[in-house]
Structures are given as structure tokens and as C-alpha cells.
Amino acid sequence: TFRDTDTEAGIAEYFFSKNFYDDALSLYLTQVAGKPSDAQLYEKIGYCDACFSGNYPIPIEEIDKTEFEG
């Protein structure tokens, strides 16, 4: 568990950028508890979950990952 939320966010972004979706998802779920109104976190959670589980309603190739980065 990270005590610094900025560090945790940075690590989550790194995992996301390297396609380590299961690791990123875990950190995003922790972050959303402290930021329940952050829409971008929910988008990233959904994207990570879809990539990790393989359960997505549209082909993953059609999702623009760059929309969620940064």
C-alpha cells in the first residue's frame, strides 16, 4: 500500500502505459475510493477490466487508449 497518492497514481499510469492492466486496475480501484467523482478513473477502470478479463462489448482495437492517457 502506498501512502502517497501522487506516487500511487504515477505507478498506476506507468502500469497502464505498459499494458499491465491487472496491476493498474488494482491501483485505480484503490484511488477511486478517495476520488469517487473522478470520471477518468472510472474510464480507466473499465478499460483495464475489459483488457484484463477479455470481456468487452466492442473489439478492443476500436477503443482509443490514447484518450485515457495523461
Top keywords for this entry?
mainly alpha; 70 residues; 60% helix; globular
Short description:
The chain contains three helices and no strands.
Describe the protein's topology:
Layout: H1 5-17, H2 21-34, H3 39-53
Helix pairs in contact: 1-2, 2-3
Fraction of residues in β-strands: under 5%
Number of strands: 0
Largest sheet, in brief, is:
none
Radius of gyration: 12 Å
User: What oligomeric state is this?
Assistant: single chain
Shape: globular
Summing up helix and strand content along with how strands pair, one would put the structural category as mainly alpha
Order of helices and strands: HHH
The average pLDDT score comes to: 80
Low-confidence stretches: none
Count of separate DSSP helical elements: 3
Give the termini separation.
23 Å
Amount of helix: 55-70%
Structure description:
Helices cover 60% and strands 0% of the residues. It contains 3 helices and no strands. The longest helix is centred in the middle third of the chain and has 15 residues, at 39-53.
